[in-house]
Amino acid sequence: MKSSDILKENNKYLIQNYQRFPIQIVKGDGSYVWDSKGKKYLDFISGIAVNNLGHKNRKVNSAIVSQLDKMLHVSNLFVIKEQVDFAKELSESKKGFKSFFCNSGTEANEAAFKLARRWGVLNGERSTIVSFSGAFHGRTFGSLSATSPRKYKYGFYPLTPGFKNVEFNNIEKLSELVAKDKKIVAIIVEPIQGEAGVKFSNKKFLKKIEILCRKNNILFVLDEVQVGIGRTGRIFCHEHYNLKPDIITLAKALGGGLPCGAIMVNPRFADFLTPGSHGTTMGGNPLSMASGLASFKQISKPSFLLNVRDRGAFFLSELKKIAKSPKIKEARGLGLILAIEFNLQEDAKAFSSICLERGLLVLLTEKYNVRILPPLNVKVGEVKNALKIFKIALEEMND
Ligand SMILES: Cc1ncc(COP(=O)(O)O)c(C=O)c1O
User: Fold this and answer.
1) What is the pLDDT of residues 155-175, one digit of tens each?
2) So what's the pLDDT on residue 2?
3) Closest ligand 1 atom number to CA of residue 107
4) Mutual orientation of helices 380-398 and 345-357 as an angle, nearest 10°?
5) Mean pLDDT within 201-210
6) Which of the following is catalytic: 252, 272, 296, 351?
7) Looking at the domain that runs over 71-299, which CATH code has it been given?
8) pLDDT digit string (tens) for 256-314?
9) Among 51, 145, 195, 225, which residue has the most ligand 1 atoms within 8 Å of its CB, making it the best to mutate?
10) 251 CA distance to ligand 1 centroid (A)?
11) Measured from the CB, is residue 110 less than 6 Å from ligand 1?
12) Is 252 an active-site residue?
């Protein structure tokens, strides 16, 4: 079928809830993907931080194939060895933490909220969950209620009661709310707000949340759906900030490319989700567990993570040179989640379109920001090629 026909059928048979690129990606290998016309692109979107090992990772693929030979699905009514293996490996990285597996980021956050509320029932009848402006926690009703930008919520009211939103990075406002509202059971924060355009939580702000949680018997929840699993050069982003969360929510890269989400919970709180209180049919299925474990074993190696930090530091220092252009407000990043923020929306749009034409995929985010998410095993030559394209794009925009 011709690409134009596929596009027509896409519009005819699929609900049009995505704003899609005007190309069809048909195959991938390492840091590259190809469209249906054979054009090659350097993929610096990585499935929005899913393909952390690039495409067609040999070890992930062979783990999937050998799992397929054994068993595709088994119900959570039974003990699933692949789940145990993955949870054990994750727990090595966060000593003693216990996992519950689901299928996506929004489900991971739902699970965190449910656990927090169940714990809150027995701890002062508390149920309020606090999140921050700019936050994105997912699109199911609970997670959507914690998500802040109105554009995600328009048309879906009424949302779930018991959610409060405070200005991001505003310690004073948060302290005031915690002093006033004695029903708060959990505070959820993204260490770096990815969907908001790679906006960083202030270090002091994160520490203050932790302190407020400790003093007021509130659960400290970190949403690491986008920034976890090595993206920032540490297994968990919060390691950069020396934080001790009670619950970590994960998804995206967790499954090594297959659908997978999880909460990792401090054992003090983990057992509040008792048998029957929460669950999912597909969560923790053997296939995504095998794939996730094969991916995690590669990513969690100290030498691999060091390389992510080095490559990210090089990329950011080069981006900062490019950011001297009067069109650019700022370049920022940590590890291999980076962004260029433009002064004008049109410029951010033009820049990402030129990159696409020139064979580089980057992601226009929240109007002014171009988000850059290379695979974590990206080669230095590939980063240099992307930088060349960025420079060309800026030159073309000046013409
Ligand atoms: C920080 C964060 N939390 C939650 C989600 C929702 O994840 P999912 O799309 O897998 O439901 C996302 C997705 O972009 C995210 O970036």
Assistant:
1) 999 999 999 999 999 999 999
2) 81
3) 11
4) 120
5) 98
6) 252
7) 3.40.640.10
8) 999 999 999 999 999 999 999 999 999 999 999 999 999 999 999 999 999 999 999 99
9) 225
10) 7
11) no
12) yes
Is pTM beyond 0.85? Reply is yes
Q: The CATH number of 3-56+302-398 is which of 3.20.20.70, 1.50.10.20, 1.10.3210.10, 3.90.1150.10?
A: 3.90.1150.10
- Whether 224 lines ligand 1, by a CB cut-off of 6 Å, is no
Question: Does the C-beta of 233 come closer than 6 Å to ligand 1?
Answer: no
Give the residue extent of every domain in the chain.
3-56+302-398, 71-299
Q: Is 384 a catalytic residue?
A: no
Contact 226 CB / ligand 1 (< 6 Å): yes
What is the model's pLDDT at position 398? 85
186 has a pLDDT exceeding 90: yes
CA distance 258 to 349: 30
223: annotated active-site residue: yes
Best of 195, 198, 288, 363 to mutate for ligand 1, by most ligand atoms within 8 A of CB?
195
CA-closest residue to ligand 1 atom 7: 105
